[in-house]
């Protein structure tokens, strides 16, 4: 059994009610739910939440909410892996043990069905523990610097000051959309950023963290631009 699990707690502080706030005409979480359903990858699409309103919205768009997430896994400090582990163990105890599980973030409006399909194919063909979305940094991280307390500049890696950008190794970061994984990897709480994982590479123009209101505005502009491009 293949299951999508969408973690969506109710206590977002920087953007209140972020998971169900309207994004380009629909509740934010709906974009993840509908894309998961449209992908054809999953036997079930489950939302893990501690919030009754989020649960109602999730059901409206076709997801299941078979349990309410406990408060102990719903605070600001709870990481993603324990939440997915809890959902898998609940399903195993009360219904059926899944074999492959995809964690999809509730705030991933740029997610595409074909990427989910590609992730599943890559998970199976490589034998990896996880397959997850990544994108490249726009500028070499070796040339990064900090601004000190007295507003001075300090390079993180001063040895690369005179190295040409094109001669530096490309670096990648988590795109924050989805994480396909084998159920035993989630249950064993294996780290995701490890050699046993395989990357699903996305272009930078389809990646946007949404942690602040500025992020939110940028994401809506990007989303609308992509829609216009698709329609032209």
TrEMBL record:
The keyword Nucleotidyltransferase appears for this protein: yes
Molecular function GO terms recorded: N-acylneuraminate cytidylyltransferase activity
Gene3D superfamilies per the UniProt record, alphabetical: Spore Coat Polysaccharide Biosynthesis Protein SpsA, Chain A
Sorted UniProt keywords: Nucleotidyltransferase, Transferase
Protein name: Pseudaminic acid cytidylyltransferase
Phylogenetic lineage: Bacteria, Pseudomonadati, Pseudomonadota, Gammaproteobacteria, Oceanospirillales
């Amino acid at each position: 059994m293949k299951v999508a699990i969408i973690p969506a707690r109710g206590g977002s502080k920087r953007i209140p009610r972020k998971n169900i706030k309207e994004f380009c005409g629909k509740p934010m979480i709906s974009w993840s739910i509908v894309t998961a359903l449209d992908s054809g990858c999953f036997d079930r699409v489950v939302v893990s939440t501690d919030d009754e309103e989020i649960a109602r919205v999730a059901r409206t768009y076709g997801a299941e909410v078979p349990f309410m997430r406990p408060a102990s896994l719903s605070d600001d400090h709870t990481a993603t892996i324990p939440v997915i582990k809890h959902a898998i163990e609940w399903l195993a105890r009360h219904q059926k043990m899944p074999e492959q599980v995809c964690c999809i973030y509730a705030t991933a409006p740029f997610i595409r069905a074909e990427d989910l399909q590609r992730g599943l194919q890559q998970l199976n063909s490589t034998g990896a523990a996880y397959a997850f979305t990544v994108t490249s940094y726009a500028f070499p991280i070796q040339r990064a610097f900090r601004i000190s307390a007295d507003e001075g500049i300090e390079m993180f890696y001063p040895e690369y000051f005179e190295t040409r950008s094109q001669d530096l190794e490309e670096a990648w970061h988590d795109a924050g959309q989805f994480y396909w994984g084998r159920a035993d990897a989630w249950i064993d709480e294996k780290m995701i950023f490890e050699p046993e994982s395989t990357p699903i590479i996305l272009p930078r123009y389809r990646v946007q963290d949404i942690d602040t209101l500025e992020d939110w505005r940028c994401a809506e502009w990007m989303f609308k631009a992509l829609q216009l491009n698709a329609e032209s």
